Amino acid sequence: MSIISLFSDKTTAQEIVASFQNNSQEIKPRFILFFSSSTHPFKEISAEMKAAFPQAQIAGCTTAGEILSGAMLKNNVVALFIDDEVIDDAAISVVDNIKDNFSIEEAMRSFESHFQMRLTEMDLKKFAGIILLDGLSGAEEKVIEKIGDYTDITFIGGSAGDDLKFRQTLLSSNGTTFSNGAVLVLLKMKNGFDIIKTQSFSTTGKKLTATKVDEKSRLVIEFDNKPAVDAYCKILGIEESECSKYFISNPLGLMLGDEPYVRSPQQVKGKSIAFYCNIREGMVLDVLQTGNIIQDTRKALTEKLKQNPSMKGIVNFNCILRTLELEQQNLCEQYGKLFSSIPTIGFSTYGEAYIGHINQTATMLILL
After folding, report:
1. 3-state class of 111 per DSSP?
2. For residue 1, is pLDDT > 70?
3. For 307, what's the count of Cα atoms within 13 Å in the CB-facing half-sphere?
4. pLDDT at position 186
5. What gap in Å lies between CA 254 and CA 329, rounded to an integer?
6. What is the rounded distance in angstroms from the CA atom of residue 127 to the CA atom of residue 258?
7. DSSP string, 28-94
8. Which region, left, alpha or beta, applies to residue 362 given φ > 0 means left and ψ of -120 to 50 means alpha?
9. What is the mean pLDDT of residues 45-71?
10. Which backbone phi and psi does 77 adopt, to 5 degrees?
11. Whole-model pTM?
12. pLDDT single digits (tens) 178-194
């Protein structure tokens, strides 16, 4: 057995980690990834995990809901144990103080030191990155852009949550817990990897251009030289009082070909609209319309299974807004069951990472 996905609903850190130890004895993990509800003692879990599995590289974060093979969960801890049948090696680096002036050079150099090769020499089909970020930092774009300045290696991941309290999100690197940072994991895959990105939206064909923005606060002040709220409501043909009710079903998307990279509105602020993602001045965005999350995810999984019948595991970074939509439609059980046949963990994120910071998307790392 090369990958095991587990969960625990125990109360104390000792009980949680003991249950993971008892149920993972068939495997000698090279790398462990865990996601924990903020209702659990995260700092203690982080330390206990490293003490219990000292030979493994271990990363984790807090969540706004958890995903396990066959189920969507709340108030649980999930973990994925991966051995050397899947990965040849793993390394973890930390980037501190991402809200301020930060550098990722030390993290990138530590990867080169660990793997004894330059980032530019690493096989892009064998090396894959996982990134976990402080979900309340507002700094995801900057971190992801700086990674792209150093390497073309694919980094995929999500922003940590705190069960919609919006107070503090936490990250873990080999037993150490912190916030205002990012955990970068670099995996050397034995058999390669694949990616799923699914967002269940299509364009309406209508467009808005951001003509006045405050990037630091992710605030769009004007679209098409009109107050943002007025322009958004006019293009959808809705009353201003109804504006925020359409945010989940009609976000905006930066189109790359036919593929939208979603920017989700968060709240109305006067006549401006705050977003969960940065929107730059001059950016042309399509107005999107919602689709069928279950159908679209099933289709994406089916296509990847045809391409990769030996798929061994999935890490699913699923936007909290998608989770809320599934909850509203009573579809959480159906969504969880889509992953019944494959060892899977994931969590409801405060944003997803894949070629940038995006929203209302599921970004998944496929382990082969």
Report:
1. helix
2. no
3. 14
4. 98
5. 27
6. 27
7. --SEEEEEEETTS-HHHHHHHHHHH-TTSEEEEEEESSEEETTEEESS-EEEEEE-TTTEEEEEEEE
8. beta
9. 97
10. -125, 130
11. 0.92
12. 999 999 999 999 999 99
